[in-house]
Amino acid sequence: MKKLLFVTVLTLVSIFSASIIAQEAMNQSFDEAVDEDVTATTVRIIDLEDTFGDQHPTAKNVKLTMEYVPFTGEVRLHYVCMAGVFDQGEAMNTSMAFFEQFAVENKYKHYAHREKDKTRYFKDSRGIRMTEYIVYVMFTK
């Protein structure tokens, strides 16, 4: 009888300790998965180097900024230049060249416009009239 009681208690202790170890491992893997999901769904704002000078010959000082969400493949491109030299055709050509390059670098197959392109006029901190052209697209793999 003592041996049976000893074996039963030993079995219960081993099952209990195994379940605690499994629970800790599951919590740790869940925390790592949550961390990966958070970084995949956050918006990354990236200032781009203007390598598309041949696409916009009249606008010399262009600032390109990209908002990118890796999880969904959403990209917003902000093209900012002085209002006097802004040409919407050049801005569209620059954005198309950027999206084609971005698709190749990140292994996307196709992109589609999510909403109509926006043009916004404003004055910067020095009082100079600027134009911002915003393109919102969604990439698919």
What does this structure look like?
- This protein is of the alpha+beta class.
- The chain has 2 helices and 6 strands, in the order αβββαβββ.
- The chain starts with a helix and ends with a strand.
pLDDT averaged over residues? 81
Cα distance spanning the termini: 66 Å
**Helical content class:** 40-55%
Quaternary arrangement of the chains shown?
A: single chain
Biggest β-sheet: count, sense, barrel?
Answer: 6 strands, antiparallel
Q: How would you classify the helix and strand content by structural class?
A: alpha+beta
Low-confidence stretches: none
Strand fraction equals: 25-35%
Based on CA atoms alone, the radius of gyration comes out at 27 Å
- Principal-axis shape equals rod-shaped
Describe this structure in a few short sentences.
Helix content is 41%, strand content 30%. It is built from 2 helices and 6 strands; from the N terminus they run αβββαβββ.
Topology, element by element:
Blueprint: H1 2-41, E1 44-48, E2 63-69, E3 74-82, H2 88-105, E4 110-113, E5 118-123, E6 129-140
Antiparallel strand pairs: 1-2, 2-3, 3-6, 4-6, 5-6
Using brief descriptors, characterize the structure shown.
single chain, alpha+beta, 141 residues, 30% strand
